[in-house]
Amino acid sequence: MQLHRLFSAFPAGFPGVGLLLLRVVVATTLGGHGFLCLLSSDRVTLGVLFSTALLLLSSVLMLIGFLTPLLSLLSAVECLAIVLSWFPFHLLTPIESKLALIPIIVIAAAIALLGPGAFSLDARLFGWKEIVIPPSSRPPQE
After folding, report:
1. How many domains would you assign to the chain?
2. Model confidence over 5-56: pLDDT tens digits?
3. Residue 132 lies in a domain
4. Secondary structure in 3-state letters for the chain
């Protein structure tokens, strides 16, 4: 599989800003849950450190838009793991409901399907390239 097939489009303008806002929402939610995972655990175990590191790393990479389709699927799986209690995640207050992550799962899946947008590192690295063919210096042969 070629890497450019992972990215469907890099829309700019208002659609690009919309994708950026979606990435920011997912990234801040993942980062917040990563910090909450550290703060709310009584004992810091290897599982807590792994889940926190995974949440924080995917949060930063999602925010800058690096390998967005893959990381948004990973983010959806991480949130699903929190909802299904696969990760050792304890809540601080009743307001921090695991069910609040279900919209984040849907948003992350939508980002995976739509692509990163023009305001991402993916657009800079893998975006559309313009190939300039210089004019020929010699006349065409007949």
Report:
1. 1
2. 555 667 788 988 998 999 999 999 888 888 877 777 677 778 778 888 888 9
3. no
4. CCHHHHCCCCCCHHHHHHHHHHHHHHHHHHHHHHHHHHHHCCCCCHHHHHHHHHHHHHHHHHHHCCCHHHHHHHHHHHHHHHHCCCCCCCCCCCCCCHHHHHHHHHHHHHHHHHCCCCCCHHHHHHCCCCCCCCCCCCCCCC
56: its two tokens: 């924080």
In a domain, 63, yes or no: yes
H or E element in which residue 83 lies = helix 68-83
| Pairwise CA distance, residues 56 & 53, whole Å | 5
For 70-128, the pLDDT digits (tens) are: 999 999 998 888 788 776 665 555 446 677 788 889 999 998 888 888 888 888 887 76
Q: Are 112 and 87 in contact (CB under 8 A)?
A: no
Note the Cα 103 to chain centre separation in Å. 14
Is 133 part of any domain?
A: no
- Domain ranges, residue 46: 32-126
pTM of the predicted model, to two decimals? 0.75
140 domain residue, yes or no? no
